[in-house]
Amino acid sequence: MRREHMYLLEHQRDQTVYLGDRARRHSLAECVACHVRRDALGHTIPINAPGQFCAACHAYAAVEMDCFECHATRPDSGLGRASGKP
User: Fold this and answer.
1) HEC profile for the chain?
2) Taking the CB of residue 65, how many other CB atoms lie within 10 A of it?
3) What is the number of structural domains in the chain?
4) Residue 75 within any structural domain of the chain
5) Phi then psi for 6, rounded to 5 degrees?
6) Which residue in 7, 41, 56, 72 has the fewest CB atoms around it within 10 Å?
7) How many other C-beta atoms are found inside a 10 Å radius of the C-beta of residue 46?
8) What domain range includes position 62?
């Protein structure tokens, strides 16, 4: 998955954007829901925060993580553009 995930995400993007398939399986929210972490108080930490699952791998690979310019950074952050704020 680590080496090939960008191809899966591109396929899901094409299914959603170009073909109009809005099924949950093509939602980035499903990825975030599994990979998000919580702090000591139980609050979700944005997936793109330093040291988080996605951010750590993207920093290691020296690639930009621009998914969250539009997508929510945590499962409970609501709709609209992601701000990364609670």
Assistant:
1) CCCCHHHHHHHHHHHHHHCCCCCHHHCHHHHHHHHCEECCCCCEECCCCCCCHHHHHHHHHCCCCCHHHCCCCCCCCCCCCCCCCC
2) 15
3) 1
4) no
5) -65, -30
6) 41
7) 22
8) 5-69
